[in-house]
Amino acid sequence: MIRTAAEINEQTPWQELTPGGEIYEGGTARLTNTGDWRTQTPVFHADACKHCMLCVPFCPDSAIPVKDGERLDFDFMHCKGCGICVNACPFGAITMGKEGE
Prior knowledge:
CATH class of the domain at 29-98: Alpha Beta
CATH architecture of the domain at 29-98: 2-Layer Sandwich
Number of helices: 2
Mean pLDDT: 84
Distance between the termini: 47 Å
CATH topology of the domain at 29-98: Alpha-Beta Plaits
């Protein structure tokens, strides 16, 4: 029996765990709050943003929300601070800073 990640807990026998290196479902940061892992924090500069949305598909954590065709500030519960969005933004609307500053 193959279980999804949501069905696995500390009571799951090892025989029912997914063998290492085999992926049976899509991974997504939406299922896990990973924002506490961050050491660098992206800073969104709304005045420089042209809402081109180039940063959105590059974010591996789905941490850049969009509403009504406009990009919003980061979802810091999911952002790990990788900085990929900084490199994807052609307008300098995202910079990186130290966590907590």
